[in-house]
Each structure stands twice: as C-alpha cells, then as structure tokens.
Design brief:
Helix content is 35%, strand content 20%. It is an alpha/beta fold. GO terms for molecular function: glycerate kinase activity.
Length: 387
C-alpha cells in the first residue's frame, strides 16, 4: 500500500515536512508495512522556497535588502540549475522574505508607507547572476504599493507633477503623474517570470487588494478607501502611457497589487501557487501507484477551495482516481463543498484551548489524529471483508 503524505505547513507550529513526519508517525502505528512517500507542499506563500528545495537540488543565498519599513533585513532566496539548459538558472524568491508582514511588529503595520523595494533588490540580484527563470511567491506581504517599490528598485521612475520620485508606500501613488521605464534593468525582458499566488482578487474595488487584505496589514477603514483610490490612480496613469488598465485583472490584487508593478517590467505569468509547486515537484509522477493521499494545513474551510494546498493536491489525486483525506488543526464552519474533492476531513484539536497550547501540541495532535484515522480505516476494512 502506497500512501502519499502531502500537506502544507501548519502555520506557526509545523513546517510541511514536520507535518509529513507527524502523519506518518501516526499511520505507521497501524500500518507499519505501508510505503510512505512525503510530498511537503506550499501554495506560493511563506515556506515555498524551502518546500521546493526539499524536492529539488538548489542553493540558498542571503542578501541584505530594504525591509518593508525601509530598514535593512537579511532575505533568503534560492538558485536552481535548469535541467534543460546548461547555462540556465532558475531563481526562487518569496516576497515575504524581504517585504513580509512577519518582518513588522503589530503596532508598526502601516500599508500606506510599506514598500516592496527589497523584493525588487532580490529580483535585481537574480537578474545580475544570469537567471533565465524567476519564480516569485506572493504570500505574506506587508505592502499595498502595487509593486511600485519593485519598479523603483529595478530602475523605473515613478514621478509626481514636479518630476520628483515618489516616496515609498501605497499612499504615495495618489500623486503619481508619470512612469519612466527608460533605465530599467536591461535583462527584465529576457527572463521568464512566473508569479505564484493563491488569490484571484482584482487590483481595486470591494474585492481588491486594499479592501480585502489592507486591514490585516494595519489599514483603518479610511486608509483602505484612500489606498484603493491610489491604486486605481496608478492603473489609470499606466493606461494613459501603455493603453492597458489592470484595475479589474484577475490576480492583480495579490500581495497588495504587486502584479501591477511587475507587469510594467516583465512578460508576466500568473499561476495558482499550488499548481506551480505541484508542477515543479512533478507531483503527478509522485502520485502514480498511490492508494491514498493525506493532505492538510492549519485551517481548512471554504477558502481552501480558492487554490489552497489541500484542494490542489486532492484535485490532482482525484483525476487519477486516488482518494484523499484532509487533516487540519481546525475546520471552519463552511466545508461542505470540500467533500466534492476530499473524501473526509478531520480536525486535530480536542477541545477549546489557548492558542499557545494548540501550537505547542500540534505535532502530538496531528500524530494522534492520523493514528485514529488509520485505525478506523483498518477496522472498516475488517468489518466489510468479514461481510
């Protein structure tokens, strides 16, 4: 019996690899002779680089760049060697590494001034070393600047009516008068640039970057409205100069509108993060011959259907006729639609507990739940075989 264990991380408690180990520990108590294959996953957010490097050969690098509030931070990124080309390089970058929400204390969160400039500096490093493909994960951003900082880091000029460069932050975009791309990095148009995200939100409007994601980054209701107007103005200026308006483009609301700025520089491809990860890790080959897939993440609910890891891998398994089981730290109230793809779901928390306790006991809870699922499967097989 081949069992593929393919979870995302359980945020703040277990990495995806640790989750794999906990699930196997529980299942192996009941099925010690099964073949267990670990496929730790991510959907484009924090941990994506680590996940991809567990399945591929690569080198982690660190570069000091500009953090979301202008401070210096050490950001990790990775370089892979392309199998298809001797001189090609694939670079993996997470926006969260340089411009992430986790880099800012709660009381300092302010998307009016946070910048994606540091992510642009990482991209510049990738271009300088000869990258032929760049994979950028957009999860976990602290920014709402529509990728303006990235444009500035790569040589673009965002100018006000006086011809002066705009300061950092999404609020400054309200003063944008013109965009000058004459001095952008010469290799911008030479690379294949793939953005991985798990949302399809547009740039502006009630379902756009500012309204949906701004509050978690520290935006007040008043700031949300002004940021939305600023991003809309950015889109209008871009339309005046290029004839293209991305205000309503699918996925352009991800990471505070980061695809907007990127689209000025690169021939951009936007993919669901989990689909990109599954393709890079050749998940379809891993699933061949499997009898069961076990997936999961910290929280599973109706949002899981919007391109999250459990839904992505379960859908791939379903296409091959392989059943899947989902295990989460907690299950939301709206999960009925999940059952069209994932046969059954389980929560690991036994009773109401303080968050600190839930996080500290995550591994034991996951192992125990996996063991109980395995025992139930074995008992069911015995009962029905007897009949």
């Amino acid at each position: 019996m081949k069992i593929v264990i393919a979870p995302d991380s359980f945020k703040e408690s277990l990495t995806a690899k640790q989750a794999c180990e906990s699930v196997q520990s529980g299942f192996a108590q009941v099925f010690p002779d099964a073949e267990y294959v670990h496929l730790p996953l991510a959907d484009g957010g924090e941990g994506t680089v680590d996940v991809l490097l567990q399945g591929l050969e690569g080198e982690i690098r660190q570069t000091q760049v500009t953090g979301p509030l202008g401070e210096k931070v050490n950001a990790s990124w990775a370089v892979l060697a392309n199998k298809q080309a001797d001189d090609g390089k694939t670079v993996l970058i997470e926006l969260a590494a340089a411009s992430g929400l986790d880099l800012i204390k709660l009381e300092q969160r302010n998307p009016a001034v946070t910048t994606s400039f540091g992510t642009g500096e990482l991209i510049k490093e990738a271009l300088n070393i000869g990258a032929t493909k760049i994979l950028l994960g957009l999860g976990g951003s602290a920014t709402n600047d529509a990728g303006a900082g990235i444009v500035q880091a790569l040589g673009g000029k965002l100018l006000n009516k006086e011809g002066k460069e705009l300061p950092f932050g999404g609020a400054a975009l309200a003063d944008l008068a013109s965009i000058n791309l004459d001095d952008i990095h010469p290799r911008c148009k030479e690379v294949e640039f793939i953005v991985a995200c798990d949302v399809a939100n547009p740039l502006v409007g009630e379902s756009g970057a500012s309204h949906v994601f701004g509050p978690q980054k520290g935006a007040t209701p008043e700031l949300v409205k002004s940021l939305d107007k600023a991003l809309s103005h950015f889109a209008s200026i871009r339309e005046q100069q290029t004839g293209v308006n991305h205000s309503g483009s699918k996925g352009f609301g991800a990471a505070g509108g980061t695809p907007m700025g990127l689209s000025l520089l690169f021939e951009l491809q936007i993919k669901q993060g989990i689909e990109m990860v599954l393709d890079v890790l050749e998940a379809d080959k891993v699933l061949e011959g499997a009898n069961l897939v076990i997936t999961g993440e910290g929280q599973m609910d109706n949002q899981t259907l919007q391109g999250k890891t459990p839904f992505g891998i379960a859908r791939r398994a379903q296409m091959k006729g392989i059943p899947s089981i989902g295990i989460a730290g907690s299950l939301g109230q709206e999960i009925d639609e999940l059952y069209n793809t994932i046969e059954s779901t389980f929560g690991t928390v036994r009773s109401p507990q303080p968050l600190e306790q839930v996080l500290s006991e995550a591994s034991n809870n996951l192992t125990r739940t996996a063991r109980n699922i395995a025992a139930t499967l074995k008992l069911g097989a015995q009962i029905f075989n007897e009949k």
